[in-house]
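2024-03-11 09:14:02 INFO receiving multi-entity request
2024-03-11 09:14:02 INFO entity count = two
2024-03-11 09:14:03 INFO echoing inputs for audit
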Amino acid sequence: MIHTFRPAGTPIALALFLATAVPAPVFADPDPQPWSERAIREDVDITALAASGEDPISVLQPLGERLFSARFTTLDGAGRPDATGAIVPTKARRRSHLPFQRLAGMDANACASCHNEPVVGGAGAFTANVFVSEGFESADFDTIDPQFSNERNTNAIQGAGLIELLAREMTADLRRQRQDVLAKARANGKTAKTKLVSKGISFGSLTADPDGTLDVSGLDGIDDDLTLRPFSQKGVFASLRQFTVNAMNAHHGMQARERFGSTWTGTDDFDDDGHTDELTPGHISALVAWQATLPAPTRKQDLPDIWQDAAQAGETLFGEIGCSACHIPELPLESLVFHDPGPYDTAGTLRQSDVVSPLALDLGTLDWVKALPRDDQGRVLVPLFGDLKRHKIADAANDTFGNELLAQRFVARDVFMTAELWGIGSTAPYGHRGDLTTLNEVILAHGGEATASRKAYSDLEEQDRQSVIAFLRSLEIAE
Amino acid sequence: MRQAGFLALTLLAVTASACPAFADNISGNTSGQSSLAPVPVFAEEAQSAGINHIYDGAWEFFVGGGTAIFDCDGDRRPDLFLAGGKNPAQLFRNASPTAGPLKFEPVDTGLSDRQSANVLGAYPLDFNNDDVLDLVLLRLGENLLLEGKGSCRFDVTNRALAFDGGREWTTAFSATFEPDLEFPTLAFGNYVDRSAPGSPWGTCHDNFLFRPETTGDGDVSYSEATRLSPGYCSLSMLFTDWNRSGEPALRISNDRQYYRGGEEQLWAVPPGRPPRPYRKADGWQHLKIWGMGIASIDLDVDGFPEYALTSMGDTKLQKLAEDSDETVPVYQDIAFDLRVTAHRPYAGEDLKPSTGWHSEFQDVNNDGLWDLYIAKGNVEAMPDFAAYDPDNLLLGQWDGRFTEAGSEAGIGLDRRGRGAGLADFNADGLLDIVVVNRGAPASLFRNLGQGTAEHPKPLGNWLAVDIRQPGKPNRRAVGAKISVRTGTRSMVKDVQIGAGHASGQSGFVHFGLGVAERANVRIKWPDGDWSHAYRVFANGHVIIDRGAEKARLWYPE
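2024-03-11 09:21:47 INFO inference complete, emitting structure
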């Protein structure tokens, strides 16, 4: 086993004491007492693990599960008295006297304290909503005035590994198309245009000029750099790793070395809580591995006949009225090898260029992945009911989903990533704010690009609408 | 010929004894600390890249040795023009594979042998508003205005523009677009007047300002020169909006070696009126240095740029004094506080003072903090100044100060640096360095980030920005300010022609973004209008056309 115990976030005072008073080998700390309130007790050397040939899933998954459920304490470095929750390391203008704070955070000391319905890693109730801000606007977001944030319901993580793999493949696919249209324009000496399509989903168009310049104004539902960012309700995070580093700081004040460490901030205790390098790359890899291997949602298996029949009819109607145009039932996935770090992260999230070789987590070894259907090309069909694309989902006539005050990370307030509906039957309440109690309400809240489908749904007979509900309620996160 | 700077040496000795920090930093790192900011690794690749070039010559070429970095063939990659002194100047087309080893191919400029000789420096700009970059050559003798014709070909246009290139020893240049003028105003800085009685002592030549006149057919003419007198042997000049008035003034750094009664200069250049030097009564403080190169950046983003001035001995870093304001150019020196004096070599056993030339603020490690590069090298064989005098790479730290990392970065060659420039030659997002050395091959350093020549690795995120004003004069928006915001931090850089030591560049403007994966970019156009915020993603090249709703992107092949 690669497990090596090394306390993360050694208090500065202790580190200094050890450095000055104790011979170097004593850096190997004694085991904590059985009653210790420290949550982090293990670390993993991911360089050694990648080189060992050992299955990284079996090593990382248990540690990741423990970290996801761990209740971080001040002994671990929980809290960020001198830093905001911003994704880019940002000093607070003044220290908050509140270690916990529901808006600006830290707002939790365990991932599982929100992601817990119906199981750990799942969604959260309205009481577990979080408040999203860029974190460096509006007086450091240290106000308790909610107008400086967007309130969001907790997303379920089940199946996220497959989602990220799909996104990676689509990013690679779209960038290939970008390269092709640039090469065509250069070769022909005239402007070239291409329609971007990946896995059957259109992302608008690109226009290339012979000098290598690119007009991106025709893009649709994806960022200008053609990185498909599948995570968060806005679709603004590229990887589980990036999201994990963000969330550990924002929600728990646990700062990962790869972003908040001395390389990019000049200090190994950016939040000034007396703990250095609170989360190592090994900790983040463990959390990523656990999330990436969480079984994808499935369908209820033990439905009574009446529900089964209704669900079957509802699934057909779901397609007929246009819902499946965006909530695409399944997308094909070529490769099941999840590399960590991933290929599209940038500085501040561990990159493949930062390590000798990335960890290779073969999700194909997992029983729940083996159970997924494959197409005639052998590709796994990921039953996500989504398109990994952003859409305008509100309009003046139906502004329920346009209820946010702030754009997030360049994405307008009425634009959201298509919610993957797998597991929807287990994740009430609904909507990005978690403020719609029934599926009927959330369907009727669709505006913008979904207007036609919503109207088609509302025009259905009551029985047919109930069939659609029956279908959606059959998509569950297994307990 | 330069003489030993006894006064400077004495002063330095006093300073060193009074400041233990200095005494501790005789060798190695002048700050006594290692850089917390990541140190990039550079590999010298001039020979393998096909750059075989030496700047050399007699006394007149102890100074100069510039380079112009600009795209001469329209492929948006930076090409290289290198001054040669007694040797012919050379132009190299950039053929570097993206993210690969540096590669250049010599190209014929179309200049005669006579025209390409005696070149001390070069600055690119678009002086005729045709959106093809032109080139100004600073020469011992007639200066040349070269009109870019595309495909790296140039025509000498002195006669067509009625420009008298003069017979002076020209060592500095800057250009600006004055309000309501369609074409640029050109300033030429001259060195010693060798024909004057008593030369070289106290015989500095006047400098010249050429304002454009629009001819009947809409072209430009530079038929009249305005003397900027007195001249004090200038080695660097820069049109700079020091007081955020929107009216650039001309800062001139002068070499005290030869002037009498001279000083550093700042000239007001009011539109339509004669230039006039700021004097003591205006608040301008008397400062005598061996001024060789100006670098300018707004370190604290207060709208008032800071100026690094290289010299023999310690480098100055000037900041507008706290008790000053937009009307009174009083500067305080913060070089010591920020640890950028770079007053003696950071490596080797030579304790004598350094000799600084080209200087430039850039971000070589993409951490979002400005770094300062200084080319160093003995004038020729001055015994009282360090013989081994490696170039500086002062990395910006999070505490606002700088730390020397030249040795660790691998740029400390035993060559006498002169002009230089930092640009991303292989479009990998890491700034490379070209240095013109006196009497030795030009150096070309490829930035490998945290990797090796075989496997370069990126550092922080980055952004390269090119701005244009389509359909307007001043297409390249000289005088504009680019503001890049990530989180609560802002970085600003001015689009300028001038400064450094006989070396200029035009092209993508580079910003390090640290761990930010996106940024908001706003442009303050030369007429003072601000653009809306352009939302751009990290690690790419963006082109912002004035008035455009979205930025265009550029991808190298």
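2024-03-11 09:21:48 INFO post-check: Residues 6-18 of chain B form the longest helix (13 residues).
2024-03-11 09:21:48 INFO post-check: Helices of chain B lie at 6-18, 20-23, 46-49, 113-116, 335-338, 406-409.
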